[in-house]
Sequence to fold (234 residues):
Amino acid sequence: MRQGWLLGILVTFCLLGYQWMPSAVAGLLAIERVSISGTDRLERRVVLSLLDLPEDRSLLSVDLSSLGKKVEAHPGVASASVGRVLPHTLTVIVKERKPVALFQHAGGTLLLDKEGVVLSLAPDRPVGTLPELAGLSAMKVLAGEPETQARARNGLRFAKHLQRHVGRAVSVDLSDARFMVGKTDGLVFLVKNEFQEIWQPYLKLEPTLRERFRQGSYEIDLRFAGQVIVRKEG
Fold:
């Protein structure tokens, strides 16, 4: 009788547990908090809107990969990862695209990241020392056309070298696909896309040219292997 009584109690507890367990688990898996990190320019409300979580959301029912792709659809996001933290928390780690250049075109100015991806319209009067790119098709830049983005990346690399050297804002004209034109105060540089090989020899030679540069504006042609051609503008 005692064994039967104990068995009855055990069965009762099992039945109660079977009924209670789903609601207890559901309570632990309910999403009550969304933790977002890595954002600087992107507002929290924008990320939540991109996630578009359903009302009956739970940590178990959401597709983490799909949620990450939703956030990555924003032009200002380079990558996003979404995870679960018990109890109740959905984590979103965002890597934003950073503005590194201005792209000037007939319709205005756009902000670009290091990959040549358009982030947004620039302010009416951009401030700071971001380099400027020009000479590309605005429609192709906005559409993310691969060849145009490759040309933009070349321009950004050259602008970075040039800006590091002169220490101020520069502009790079990419109108001619065969070469780039970099402009600073008083100096204009003509270089091919693969400019690194001739850039270092030019830097070694430049100290001998500084006195000449003080006398006016000059064009420095570095398009030809092993040659540094200096012409006075005008």
